[in-house]
Amino acid sequence: MTALLPGLSGSEATLSADTAAPFARRRSDAAQLLNPGATPTIPAAAPVVVPTLSLLLIDDDPGIVQVLGRMLCGLGHLRFALSGQDALRLARESAPDVVLVDADMPGMSGFEFCALMKADPQLAEVPVIFVSSHGEVETEVAAFAAGAADFIRKPPAAEVVMVRVRTQLRLKALADALRRAALVDGLTGVANRRRFDEQLQSECERALRNGEPLSLLMIDVDHFKRYNDRYGHPAGDLCLQEVATAVQGLVRRPADQVARYGGEEFAMLLPQTDLTGASHLAERVVAAVEALCIPHEGSPPRRVVTVSVGVASASRMPAANHTALSAEALIRAADQALYAAKAAGRCQSQTYRPPIATGEFGGAID
Ligand code: GH3
Ligand code: MG
Ligand code: MG
Prior knowledge:
By secondary structure, this protein is of the alpha/beta class. It has twelve helices and twelve strands. It has helices spanning 17-26, 30-34, 62-72, 84-93, 110-119, 137-145, 158-181, 193-210, 224-231, 233-248, 275-291, 323-343, and strands at 4-5, 13-14, 54-58, 77-81, 98-102, 128-132, 150-153, 214-221, 257-262, 265-271, 307-314, 349-351. The strands form three sheets. Strands 4-3-5-6-7 form a five-stranded parallel sheet, sandwiched between helices. A five-stranded mixed sheet has the order 9-10-8-11-12, with helices on both faces. The protein has a two-stranded antiparallel sheet with strand order 1-2. Strand 6, helix 6 (137-145) and strand 7 form a beta-alpha-beta unit. It is elongated. One magnesium ion (MG) is lined by residues 220-222, 224, 264.
């Protein structure tokens, strides 16, 4: 087993096999941590994927770090730092699930470290537990004021450390699950409208900043009201799930996002993708949904579920343009293209063409 311990440099070092032995004995299944009383119901042979929890321990005294490491090694992957600066670097490299920090350290104090964690959007939700020999109420209050999740007095007792760290990990897992659920569409499992709006905004800003292309597909199920009328709403729900899965299966890049825009309408946001690439993908969306061969007697002439797709692309957006307006304009452009696809007979994609040479982005729409 390899564990990391603070070295002379104050960042990380590898434990020798002897020192690591007690750590290995204490290692246990992280799933038990999140639900300690639960009886395992999954057969032993079933593959269980439990994300490895990550703990970051910070103290300028290597002895304390080592003691805490022995107490907590069974909970997940441990990283150590002897200073707030090193700890911040490690946290930014990869966000931990929980941090234990000494209040009193030369250079950056635990309070400063905690405040910087809370100010960083990527790290703000990570619980920070103070471990301090200062027992005064003022110190404890100052820790919570800096954003601490808990406060443990030195010398740390193993049972107290374990139970408090477990509590914070459990709360963090619940909060993470809620945060994820708040951004996912309950019916189809793709991103929801809220997540889409957020990402559209940030991708518009990025495109604006970097002068990169950004494309959007608006995808609408054809004659879906008739589908519901004929086959019933539960069948309609299943149909939307299948369509969402098929569309999601077409994206290859991590930054591409499929979202349920509303009702039977989906959006696909394609950063760093120009109109040619987006149009190509739009054709694949139309073909993939038709290939599902979901019977739809009310949708002649094919009599299967199909979609229409509108494509719009913004590139080289001039910095003078307001970002919010760009996001709105991109949606409007894709919507117009979608209506054109509907008007032209459905089950096809159409590309937005600006009515005048400059377009709504002042030349931004290809
Ligand atoms: P078009 O080809 O022009 O898009 O016609 P359409 O019938 O698909 O469009 P319309 O906007 O008239 O109807 C959309 C239908 O989608 C009506 C609505 O009941 C249905 N719908 C919206 N959300 C859901 C949902 O979550 N589940 C089900 N089953 N149906 C939904
Ligand atoms: Mg429709
Ligand atoms: Mg619609």
